[in-house]
Description:
- It is a single chain.
- By secondary structure, the chain is mainly β.
- The protein has three domains: 4-128 and 407-454, Cupredoxins -  blue copper proteins (Immunoglobulin-like, Sandwich); 142-161 and 286-388, Immunoglobulin-like (Sandwich), CATH 2.60.40; 164-278, Superoxide dismutase, copper/zinc binding domain (Immunoglobulin-like), CATH 2.60.40.
- 9% of the residues lie in helices and 36% in strands.
- It is built from four helices and 30 strands.
- A hairpin with a 2-residue loop joins β19 and β20 (272-278).
- Residues 402-457 have low confidence and may be disordered.
Amino acid sequence: EAFGFYPHMIVIDAGDTIVWTVTSAEPHTVTFFSGKPSFNGLSPIAVFPIPCSQSAPNVYNGSEVCSSGLLVQGEQYSLTFTTPGVYVYTCVLHPGLQGVVVVQPKGAPYPYTQEQYNVIAQQEMAMDLQAVQTAVDSYQVGPTSVSVNSSVYRVAVGYQPQEITTASLSPVGNSGVSGNVTVQVVSPQTAQVKVSLSGLTPGKSYSVQLLFGSSQYGEATGYSPINIGSFTPTSTSYSASFLVHQNLSLVAYTWIELPMAGLYMNVNTGSNTVASGDIMFTDGGIMGFLPSVVTIYAGDTVVWTELEQNDVHTVTYVPPGMPIPEFGTPQSFEAIGNNSVFDPSQYHNSGPLVYGQSYALTFDKPGVYTFVCLVHDEIGMYGYVNVLPRPSSTTHIVNQVTTVMQQTTLPGTTLIQHYNTTISTSTGDMLARVAAVIGILFGVVALAIAAVATRRR
C-alpha cells in the first residue's frame, strides 16, 4: 500500500483550517511535536488526543504539542493555523510518515487550489505504489540451506523497498553551486550521505546540513539542523561520503527511517546557503508473506523474517476450532513454538516481530497449513506451508514469489469549513481502543491521508 500524507506538503494562510481524513484500513495519528521531545507508538499516550490548549484544542500556534490521537478509517482531524511558519508533522505509529504545512501571512495568494492538491495527491500516491511494485517485482526469495535429510526455506514477513533516495541540490541565488545527494540507511543506526557538488570555489570552506522543513520555504519551527560535515575543496568539484547516526525522522523506534517529506539539505559557506534540495523517500509497504505459498518436504524448516521497517507483523498458526485471536490481546503477544517442531493441533505464534526478527518451525507431518498475521488478518495477510512426504531421493524445491499487484485510490475530497473542531470520544470507546492499542501501535502499514485546506470566512 502507499504510505503517506497526501499531498506531502500543503501551503495555506494564517487563519485557515486543514482537515485530515484517514482513507486506509490502518489507523494513524496526525501529530505536531513543534520541536519538543517526541514519543512513538509504544508510548501509552500515543492513542489519546492531545489538545493544543485547553481553551482552543484545535487551534495551532506553532509552539505546542498537538495530536489527533488514534484515527481509524473514515475519521477526521482538523487544525486551524494562526501563525505563519513552516511546520513538520508525523504519525507516531509509523516512523518516516511525515508531512509539511506551510502557513503564509493572512491574505497571501495560494500556490495551488484544493482541486490541484487533489491531483498532486494522486500523483504522489501513484509514485509510492509504483516504487513498492518495482521492489516486489525484483524481490528474490531468501537462500535455502539444503542437506540430505532437511532443508531450510525462508519467507519474508512484509516487505519494504530499500531505504535509499537521491535528490538534486540547486543553486541558491547566483552561487553557481549545484549537485546531488544520495541518502541510504545502511544499518539500523547508520545512514550514509553521499554528496557530489560542482561550481565550488577552491580553498573556501563549506559545510553540509540536513534540516527539517522545506528547501523552498525554510526550516521548520522548533528544530535544529543536523550537521553532517565540512570540507575545503581544491577544485571546483567535490564528492564526499558522510555517516549519520541520529534520527532523520521526527519519530523513531530502534532504527533510522528515511522520511517521506519534511527533510532537506543545505550546503553552506559561512552563514550563506549556496545550494539546497528536498530529500523525499518514495515510500510504501507490502502486507504479505513472500512467497505466500512455500512448498517443502517433511523434515524441512521454514524461517520467517520481518523485512518491513514501517510495520510489525506476526506469524501465527491457529489450529482447527480455535478462533483467530484479536491482536492486542495477551494471547496475540504470547510467543509460542519458535525453533520447535510444528504440531498442527496446537497454537503457534511468533508474537509481534519488528524489523530483522525471525520465527522458525520444523515440519514433520505432510499437509497444507495456514499462517496469518494477527495484525493484518482482516485485510488478508495469510501464508501457506505445503508439506510433502519426503521421498527416498529428495529434489530441492524452488519457491517463486508471485507478483503482487496492489491498487490504492484516494477518494475525492470536499471543501469543508471547520472551526475549532474537536474529536470527541466516549470513555467506553477509548477504553476499547486502548485494549487494542498494541495492535494498532504495531500495525504500521501504508495509508493515504488527504489534506483539505479551507479558508476562513
